[in-house]
Amino acid sequence: MTLLADLLSTVFERRYRRHAAGAALDGRPLTELADALVGTAGETSGLALAEEILTRFDTLGDDEKLEFFRYLATAMNIDPEAVRSSLDEYERDPSKATYRSFAAAAEPARQEMIRRLNRVPGATGALVQMRADLLRLGGKEAELQALDLDFRHLFASWFNRGFLVLRPINWESPAHILEKIIAYEAVHAIDSWDDLRRRLEPTDRRCFAFFHPSMPDEPLIFVEVALNSGIPGSVQALLAEDRNPMPEDQADTAVFYSISNCQAGLASISFGNSLIKQVASDLAAELSGLKTFVTLSPIPGLIKWLSQEDHEWDIEQPDQMKALAAHYLLNAKGRSNMPFDPVARFHLGNGALVHAVHADADTSDKGRAQSGGTMVNYLYDLSRVSQNHEQFANTRDVIASADVKSLAASASLSTTQER
Amino acid sequence: MTLLADLLSTVFERRYRRHAAGAALDGRPLTELADALVGTAGETSGLALAEEILTRFDTLGDDEKLEFFRYLATAMNIDPEAVRSSLDEYERDPSKATYRSFAAAAEPARQEMIRRLNRVPGATGALVQMRADLLRLGGKEAELQALDLDFRHLFASWFNRGFLVLRPINWESPAHILEKIIAYEAVHAIDSWDDLRRRLEPTDRRCFAFFHPSMPDEPLIFVEVALNSGIPGSVQALLAEDRNPMPEDQADTAVFYSISNCQAGLASISFGNSLIKQVASDLAAELSGLKTFVTLSPIPGLIKWLSQEDHEWDIEQPDQMKALAAHYLLNAKGRSNMPFDPVARFHLGNGALVHAVHADADTSDKGRAQSGGTMVNYLYDLSRVSQNHEQFANTRDVIASADVKSLAASASLSTTQER
Amino acid sequence: MTLLADLLSTVFERRYRRHAAGAALDGRPLTELADALVGTAGETSGLALAEEILTRFDTLGDDEKLEFFRYLATAMNIDPEAVRSSLDEYERDPSKATYRSFAAAAEPARQEMIRRLNRVPGATGALVQMRADLLRLGGKEAELQALDLDFRHLFASWFNRGFLVLRPINWESPAHILEKIIAYEAVHAIDSWDDLRRRLEPTDRRCFAFFHPSMPDEPLIFVEVALNSGIPGSVQALLAEDRNPMPEDQADTAVFYSISNCQAGLASISFGNSLIKQVASDLAAELSGLKTFVTLSPIPGLIKWLSQEDHEWDIEQPDQMKALAAHYLLNAKGRSNMPFDPVARFHLGNGALVHAVHADADTSDKGRAQSGGTMVNYLYDLSRVSQNHEQFANTRDVIASADVKSLAASASLSTTQER
Amino acid sequence: MTLLADLLSTVFERRYRRHAAGAALDGRPLTELADALVGTAGETSGLALAEEILTRFDTLGDDEKLEFFRYLATAMNIDPEAVRSSLDEYERDPSKATYRSFAAAAEPARQEMIRRLNRVPGATGALVQMRADLLRLGGKEAELQALDLDFRHLFASWFNRGFLVLRPINWESPAHILEKIIAYEAVHAIDSWDDLRRRLEPTDRRCFAFFHPSMPDEPLIFVEVALNSGIPGSVQALLAEDRNPMPEDQADTAVFYSISNCQAGLASISFGNSLIKQVASDLAAELSGLKTFVTLSPIPGLIKWLSQEDHEWDIEQPDQMKALAAHYLLNAKGRSNMPFDPVARFHLGNGALVHAVHADADTSDKGRAQSGGTMVNYLYDLSRVSQNHEQFANTRDVIASADVKSLAASASLSTTQER
Questions:
Q1: Minimal CA–CA distance to C238: which of C223, C251, C252, C257?
Q2: Which residues of C are less than 8 Å from B3 in CB distance?
Q3: pLDDT beyond 80 at C44
Q4: What is the pTM of this model?
Q5: Is 3.30.530.20 the CATH classification of the domain at D2-158?
Q6: How far apart are CA C171 and CA C190, in angstroms?
Q7: Do A45 and B386 touch (CB under 8 A)?
């Protein structure tokens, strides 16, 4: 019954918000409303103001949105003099009052504005959308980048792992959630409801997503998992339409074959690490036969890097491509000595290691274009991820299996010879 | 089915936390673990560290807790020099990088530590408890008061109205929630499960609480409501054991007769205003016969103030007590010209007005001791609360009905005569 | 939490059934197992027997199923001599014991067998499927028809209106339910998930289904509703892909434009009457603007009847078709003086009346073939359905609006002239 | 969301029923309404009639109820002549039509009346209550006993194991369910909410109940379980207020120490067998450490039987009492050679065996009065219950452990000597 209560109140709150949106609008400019929202002491008129700001913002064109963002970035920025004087005061007399004054001065008013906007039931999703607009429109403008840091600071606190809820996504999930899974899949496109069903319904398939309680209809990130016998070396085989599903309790390996972020407005708020570990841990608890947790991942930067480095390659020669891919994963480095490959950075940073490399593993146009069809398994050895993570964080050395190392060694030689 | 998923994942997460708590403990001092938690770049070991800190903190004695708090307050405080130099840098060259450095310097490391502790599933409640300890132990120590401001800053963001869920509490609610309602009732004590049932089950009774999704078993604040015919003048009559409940659709008045905060660790995070307005609005939508929303409130500061001011009173003379109460509510002021009475401050700040005063209205020992048995109705006129709120915030003038004003006028005269 | 419990237990029970199905099978013939099931006093071995019978039946070919049905129909039939002697005994000495003996003798053993099969968690759906097989295979064999009467007798009791649950079906419903809606739609085919969504998601569309608690994944019957301004005369307009949805609170008319039974095994167990009235009543309570409840129904028997009666018609002449349709609906009678048209029988039997007839209203191939494109509105006047129902049940006179009557009058004349 | 829908519809349906109850009542006598209900062909007026009958019945005094029952028992009984003639017809020409006529004649009209009453949402509970009235008032009247057999026949079908839902009852269950657990506990009374909590909240306690989906607020039967180390010999120790709960995963034994039926109106509809086996099976799946499933049961007939048989006993001599109890359990027989003790009949009939007997095991007044403080463990060996059940059903021999047998042997000797 309390559950009913919950749901009813949620439904009510959504209606409330919608209803309020229809109310007569205040004639003042949006920036003035924003000032008033931060200035208002009490909550009463604040809530109505916040609703109006959110409603009005929704209807703005891009230029007007940009103008509003610039107002927040400048008129609602910190005042350096106020920071300095309150800091002096605090140093002279470190009391509750002086600390409070300093803290208030050191935080730009726009942070408080964003928090007050969030008091409106249902506003969290609108604020995530607002940041998506900012990222889309802001470009390299330094002031807008600073504004974005404030959004990001608040979102990192609100979308803290402790507040997220992990939900399985399956063929019994609501259609309005499933259509978002179709839309957001970023690695191996889902081309129909039948395709979706092949990834959700068989006994040897799983999907999990993180949700935030204030955005119950919006997945934040999701991972697709295949339960398998052994470590797979080809995504075509894994997703074949005519394959025979296996009983879940006969699987020994869980393959994370696709991870997709869903919300542009949550860029740089990292969920993937938590998601993979939580899912691996849940699956291990549910299915005692699972011994291996591994990805089947694209190598999105391979061809780009080969071109950039003037290395030669021939995608018709699978053995050569495998060796090149292994070499690339182990040795190609970018800024701060981090791996050049973004997917490698993600999994190595999580404490996984490079386990095996495969040629002809993704024969889609996209797969051939970005990696000559090669793919890689990153292995999550739950007993060693912490240690791997520390080692990688300290040394930036790519941890890999002996096989991959020797493969890379052969490749690097032949490339050198060719030059 | 997604709901099931949710609940399962919640259950899992609680077990997870409990299980982790039993893990072998790290031998390092707690303060060293806290430093490590803030220093760790990645999430992997951070989560294990956070779990250990929370688990260890739980087992500390008060002296050790105080020591830990002092460490946070000093070693994890801001570094004024770092603030100044990063601020100079930012003023010289306002870029994303310099703003980020300033923001990092201006926020004490302990805030980041608290956010990282909160990554552990189920940690939010533990952190609320940690602040309750701080408030209990911290006293007037300036540094600990500053630390508390950091907790409060984070909690205000996390317990933002937009994240809270309103739930009805009724006789079909889970027993483990109901026993907390019994424990937390702060105005008119609930002395048994039968007493509780009399406040929840009849058709003319309601109760509502705010919950946070990360603390689903802990009400944050709750309000008890009686549906009534007319505005009541006595809590004895309202709660009489042998009264006849009325059909809900015959009520014209909703009486908020008790509001209780539940979490010591959420002191100064205000929910009551939102709660009353949300409940009034929900009830108005559900029961079209309701025209009046009113409290039946204690006057906790009356006797204290009369003593302090050397006024004379006689609780056997109801008319005199009423007049004194009216005078007190309208004229007794404290700091910043705010009303002396804390309950008055709360309701007037919400935009309610003083509607009527009653003698012999609370004849319990507590009621006689604090207010000579008088009580007061604060009226929430939904069409005027915004306006009242603004007026009170600007002028601090107590808004009251004509009756109460003339009652207060008579009182103030007689008191003067007596002196 | 009790809800969780519920769901968990349901999940458990399904697994339980599946697991049991894998158990080693008893070697005895199915008919022997059936005898043993009815003979076994206690529940213990009964449950295992029942599981085995259900599992084995599933794997049978049609001939074997027919053989099993014939066994139930003959070997498990009543024994007339036993009925007579127990009846004599009861008449001689009407006691608890003699009544019990008579009741046992008068009910064929196969009824008890079906009840015992139903003890297996999840068996209800399997039994509905078993009856679907019986109806498909049984043909006109008198003994199998008698067996079917026993199934029907039990199902009428188990699928009693008081045990059914009404659920809205919408775009937030689970995908595995929605795909059944697509599959079971029997009036206006749903040709894709996009088409389904157009019938569920817009503010002016609703869908409701009856479920039985023991078959939570299987809708029994569902109705699709369009909220409209006025009474519609064309299903093309109603389902147009490019129409603009209207706000639900501006609708004055609820149009039941499709009702589909889902379970072949529940033939002759009537749900439609209850469903329409419950939905009309719920919608009236939710949307106070709704004043009219009406169908937009096919006239499936029109062309067939015109052919059979040697009437002439020309579907290019809409006015003539309308008149013919009106005449047909009012005057074409079949067995027991009931209307010839099955849809007319259903709605008139529910207490609706023939309100209006439209030409060019269903221009699909099916619509043109069965009714020359005509359709009809049956009107549910909630204040008169009881009275209409009684009148129709007693007199079999078709109740119709004045317009339809005069239309029918014109038609009948012209047809006569033509002959 | 479908869950919400469910719950909403349930809530709606309850309101619906209550609302209807307030409608203007039909002036005809109740018996005439009952006739009309059975006679009405269609559902429309039937539903209103059914609601009125249920509402009116509720307000009757006992004499009027009895009169109504007598009407059902006589006027709505079978007509032997109709049975005979339809049976003759069926034998002459076994067709669908003649079978239907016979089946209709052989079933008394009151069964159809009860089924039609059950169409009203929420009626199932009211019908269970109606039978409770019948059992309370009917006495030994043969016609009313026959009427009761009809109720029982229908209830056995409706409360079929396959329709029941097993729910855990715990400290998070709704209070209105828990207060029924307190009220219905029939073996070891629960004397307060604190006592209840001691039986539900500790990690080593469980409680489970069967519910019917149409009576979601009413447990049908529940069992209380203690997880223990070893087989206990005293209920005082098991329920001691100051005992230390053990971690659930350290328990090796599940003790069923109390089973209570909740609904007088479901007398003779057996649930206990299913409940114990389901719970044992669920617990075994959840807690792999559990090896033994055993009861700690009262011996309610011991003292009564000893008196009746003129045996001597002295409850101060525990060894003698144990031996007498063992002898009684193994040898005291009643009707049809079944054990004299009702609790023994229940567990032996389920396939359990008499495992051990204890003196001083229930020192409550009730325990001393009925069994001189002795108690017994019945052992459920899941691998042997089927076989035990069959053996007991065939031979009526009480299956017992060697210890209990030798104990019984010693007792029977000494008793003989004393006589």
A1: C257
A2: 3, 7
A3: no
A4: 0.90
A5: no
A6: 14
A7: yes
